[in-house]
Amino acid sequence: xxxxxxxxxxxxxxxxxxxxxxxxxxxxxxxxxxxxxxxxxxxxxxxxxxxxxxxxxxxxxxxxxxxxxxxxxxxxxxxxxxxxxxxxxxxxxxxxxxxxxxxxxxxxxxxxxxxxxxxxxxxxxxxxxxxxxxxxxxxxxxxxxxxxxxxxxxxxxxxxxxxxxxxxxxxxxxxxxxxxxxxxxxxxxxxxxxxxxxxxxx
Length: 202
Ligand SMILES: [Zn+2]
Known about the structure:
This protein has helices at residues 7-34, 52-56, 142-177, and strands spanning 48-51, 75-81, 84-91, 101-108, 115-121, 139-140. With 202 residues, it is α+β, with helices and mostly antiparallel strands. The protein has a domain at 35-141.
């Protein structure tokens, strides 16, 4: 087995990876908060609108609040921007005094949502759907809270650390193939340890 890495290098890489994940974790929630859009801001163009069977294929953009499932969606739309997704899903009202079902959800965060703002409408008077709060407090989403640092931290780690390190390893492999010292490139001619850098040539 050819040894072309050192324990110190491997530890340094691991440390860099952990630090990058922690750095992304530190900006994850502030970035999500910064994506909050004011209701008075000019509206973004709708990204996708679905009706009928296409809408029914979609699931409610967040958990429904009752033990009984909500009916199939009849109208579904999403507006997307960087770090921002706004879902509007509805089942139209059956009569003028009915609310139907509506879920208005804003997800903030990138690449996965970190913060959820949710508002819901249903027939408040329907005993089968009584109980929970239709305007729950904003909540943090675990998938974005944990996923974003892992995804972004690892991507940055691969580009900034693993890529350059792979080039270094390739050079060492190349030296080993030519019979040179893996660490400094000195022409060994079968001598070990290396007379130039003093390291074991394996
Ligand atoms: Zn050497």
